[in-house]
Amino acid sequence: MGWFWGKNSQDDPAKALDDDLKQFLKEQQPRPYVPADPPVEQPKPQEKAELNPKPPAAVADPSLSPEDKPLPEASLFQDGRYKHIWKSYVPQNDIAAATSTPVERVLSARKERNQSIHKAALENCAFEEEMQQICFKGGNLSSRVRGRMTMCHEETKAFNRCYQLQAKFLQALGYMTSATSSAEDEEKIQMHADKLYHRMMDYEAEAEDAKRNDQPIPPLSSLFNPNRPAPTIEQMALPKAMEDKMKKPLHDYPPHERELAARAALQEARLTDLYAEDLFKYSVSMNEDRKARQTWLTRIFGEPIGKFLIPDPPKDPNIKPYSLKELEREIWEDENFSTTTPKENNGSGLVTKTGKRG
């Protein structure tokens, strides 16, 4: 009973083991835990910029040869590697600016703006889209069967109407019409469009509730300035040339949507005028070339054949019998809707003292 009276050093079971086996067992023992060093505090972004200042971007000198020009910012190896490959590199924006005509630039700008409005309207209608998807795919079996039988008519109708009105609000507020506005400014316009849409939905709910309870319909206020009454249809009378471009006449819209439709039509007409300024110089030079070719053909084949092959240029289509500034002044006679330049206001009604939307 040696274990009761204590351990005897002579009875050590590892004493009879070989020295190599003892060394092996010693190496297999787990190492003692050593706590790690505390993490080193990383410098802040401003301190990083001070410690490692970024060299200013080098501007390529046109007089330099391709081998002597600095590497472009698109190169991942600013130390000079693969410089022989990057010597002929030209940014895509520079290629588009040099090769595209004003007509192509206008068409591209319109396409990009329509895509941006589509994306922003879908983001503002995320709740309505989710309710439509839940109707089709969510719920129990009876709910899914009902959704398939009715094709989720109510949810789809609410989503489509939300998308159409949100897109029209974005158009009326001048979304993506200025090249100098920042992403923050465009986001503010998107949020303001969503706010005006829900204000319209609240008014529709109040009007429906008043009709059900045989009560007078609440008075209609301006969508863009609730502190003033909505303009009448006589005040919003648009020129026939502008109203013909709308999907339907102004009097066919519900009373609470007429101001939105008129404002969107004015904003689209203003944007068309901005594009027309970009096309004016191009059309002038094109007409001069047309006249030169017509003169050459007339001198060789005679005037009838020359004008038949190359007819006279059309009259200037930019001359309009109305003024956008005068129309806006007559419809929205308010300091919040004062007529300013498109770069200052863009028709959004979100103008600060500095001329930026806020």
TrEMBL record:
<feature type="compositionally biased region" description="Pro residues">
    <location>
        <begin position="32"/>
        <end position="42"/>
    </location>
</feature>
<feature type="region of interest" description="Disordered">
    <location>
        <begin position="334"/>
        <end position="358"/>
    </location>
</feature>
<protein>
    <submittedName>
        <fullName>Uncharacterized protein</fullName>
    </submittedName>
</protein>
<feature type="compositionally biased region" description="Polar residues">
    <location>
        <begin position="337"/>
        <end position="351"/>
    </location>
</feature>
<feature type="region of interest" description="Disordered">
    <location>
        <begin position="27"/>
        <end position="74"/>
    </location>
</feature>
